[in-house]
Amino acid sequence: MNRLNHRYDVLVVGAGPIGIYASLKLAAEGLRVLVVEEDAQIGKPRFCTGLISQEAFEEFHLPNKAIENEFRSFCVFSPSGLKLHLKDKTSIYATDRTVFDQSLYRLAKDAGVEFLLKCRCGMLKINNDGIEARVVFEERETIINAAVGILATGVKYALHKDVGFSLPPNFLDSSQAQVDGESGREIEIYLGNIVAPHSFAWVVPLKKNQLRIGLGTHRNSPIFLKSLLKKLRSQGRLKGGDFNIKRRLIPLGTIKNTYTDRILAVGDAAGQVKPTTGGGIYFGLLCADLAAKTVISAFKKNNFSKDFLRRYEVGWRKSIEFDLTMGLYLRKLVAKIDDAQMEELFGLCSQDSIRELIEKYWDFNHHGKFINKLIKRPEFWKGIYQMFTVKPGLDKI
Ligand SMILES: Cc1cc2nc3c(=O)[nH]c(=O)nc-3n(C[C@H](O)[C@H](O)[C@H](O)COP(=O)(O)OP(=O)(O)OC[C@H]3O[C@@H](n4cnc5c(N)ncnc54)[C@H](O)[C@@H]3O)c2cc1C
């Protein structure tokens, strides 16, 4: 067995955007950081729509080289095809996730982070004086020692049991394809149990007549996506017919504890994802920032105990738990309604007062505030009451 002959301050497992961002923040404070990544190249393969808000770019000083398109509005389609146009207060960018991850990687390397690619971590052990990671690198088993470990493994949870972490309680099955076709100016959202049961589908126009089309459901996402692509092609919107569909899980709900002695979990590995849309980049970056701050203060105090590292979890829950809880409630509500009830809900959202409320309080990153405002409106409860008590059509007799 090989052993890397130096001990790192921090070992980050996983070079997705969240692991890289955490490593960058740590190295900027002078810590010696190693990131191990099982894939051969940063940012490849990537299955992501890459929608990131202007606010996230500003808050985290993200490199804007990856931006492919900019949106100020989106169009929602009801199950029967009714349209609702909604404006955003700030821009939403579609980004190329390969370029995005690689730009962050270059910043991290410049800050002094070391990377080992094609290096899979197969085991993590917590000792009294540090952590020990068993990796396979250049076909040899190698031991890496560090004072602290950060798990940023995305939706791969094989190492969680080694350190006593639970798994996210639920997952969304998502599929996406990038296709040639007629690109519009808005993000399109499609609702309805025929398109994406208990969830929604999206069409994101990119430059050069390309579209990123995807959906999330509780199962069989590729089948639902194939039928949506077929429908869009029959409408003349898509070119070609050989669609390369990629499938991946999205965590719904966080793991129980994201800290233990000497180890923290961030990003999808911790389930820090918006339950409403499945977007994980903003919450992940926010939590990576908090994780890095916690680790930096742990080094200052020379205290890596779980009692000390608990402040990371307290911090991120304070920032996003409300959004997570409200988002999960909204998802549960949507899972209970059929298409006729969805039409009712859609009609409710099209009313001027609710529509104004959406446009005023909708925040791409924090959905809790908007949901909280919505449930305080009597029109909302009237609509919900009608949805669950009045059979469609009977109220109009
Ligand atoms: C179809 C789809 C569309 C999405 N669209 C959006 C969107 O528009 N906006 C948004 O904000 N979010 C979106 N998301 C979610 C977003 O992609 C994730 O939240 C984000 O990639 C999480 O980043 P991460 O760094 O935590 O994990 P990842 O990006 O998954 O990176 C984890 C890395 O860890 C590596 N790894 C795992 N285990 C090991 C190991 N044992 N050893 C070494 N390396 C390991 C993996 O190879 C991987 O490179 C989407 C997700 C899907 C599936």
What does this protein look like?
The chain has 397 residues and is α/β, with parallel strands linked by helices. It has 3 domains: 184 residues, 3-Layer(bba) Sandwich (FAD/NAD(P)-binding domain); 102 residues, D-Amino Acid Oxidase, subunit A, domain 2 (D-Amino Acid Oxidase, Chain A, domain 2), CATH 3.30.9.10; 60 residues, no CATH class. 35% of the residues lie in helices and 29% in strands. It has 10 helices and 17 strands. The strands form 2 sheets. Strands 1, 2, 3, 7, 8, 9, 10, 16 and 17 form a 9-stranded mixed β-sheet that branches. The protein has an 8-stranded mixed β-sheet with strand order 4-6-5-12-13-14-11-15. The site of flavin-adenine dinucleotide (FAD) has 40 residues, from α1, β3, β4, β8 and β11.
List keywords for this structure.
D-Amino Acid Oxidase, Chain A, domain 2; 397 residues; globular; disordered C terminus; FAD/NAD(P)-binding domain; 29% strand; binds flavin-adenine dinucleotide; 9-stranded mixed β-sheet; 8-stranded mixed β-sheet; single chain; alpha/beta; 3 domains
